[in-house]
Amino acid sequence: MKHILVVYASHYGATRRYAACIAKALHARLAEARDAAPLLAGADVVVWGGGLYAGGVNGAKLLAKNAEKLRGKRLIFFTCGLADPEEPADLPALQQTAQRALPAALRENAAVFHLRGAMDYAALSPLHRLMMGMMKRMIERKGDAQTGEDRQFLDTYGKKVDFVDLSAAGPLAALLRAAAGDAAGEIR
Ligand SMILES: Cc1cc2nc3c(=O)[nH]c(=O)nc-3n(C[C@H](O)[C@H](O)[C@H](O)COP(=O)(O)O)c2cc1C
């Protein structure tokens, strides 16, 4: 059986919830991105997930730093954000963000997934709250040029939302099972 390592970078826990669920179902080791480096050599298949922040992926710098250690391994990369991958208008931007975060040498062996996250404005750090406030003002200034994603941002602004759906990680886990040659438990 191949060794699977599940790595995550998460500020508020949504990415961690997906990563922990995948690791549990696949009996895989779970590690935070900042602790992953020494564990990579022993892994055949690596799942790497990061939350989306202002069009970037949390942990992308660590991924780039570890690119050499990941080269030649099967990589399953997922992002976790509020944008809806089921929304045709949102998908191209999500794909672009993921491709930008993936070091060029790893793209060929990588499968990419997008999972929906959560947000509790009351729990945000001062910097993140400031960033969201700036984004709100920018979107409001767009007026009629607002997109569906913009309107969704305004609808959820200041609130607590949770779109985490662990069953959405099922296709990722199925791919992982095939890559690892393992028939471990179901994602629930
Ligand atoms: C400052 C800030 C910027 C964000 N930018 C994006 C974004 O560009 N796209 C997106 O889909 N979600 C964005 N989000 C939402 C987060 O991706 C979402 O809350 C996710 O669940 C965070 O995962 P984590 O809790 O694992 O860090 C942003 C959230 C904050 C606080």
From TrEMBL:
PROSITE patterns, per the entry: FLAVODOXIN
InterPro entries: Flavodoxin_CS, Flavodoxin_dom, Flavoprotein-like_sf, Protoporphyrinogen_IX_DH
Xref: Pfam families: Flavodoxin_5 (PF12724)
Domain Flavodoxin positions: 5-144
Gene3D superfamilies in UniProt: 3.40.50.360
Protein's GO biological process: heme biosynthetic process
Highest rank taxon of the organism: Bacteria
GO molecular function: electron transfer activity; FMN binding; menaquinone-dependent protoporphyrinogen oxidase activity
Protein name: Flavodoxin
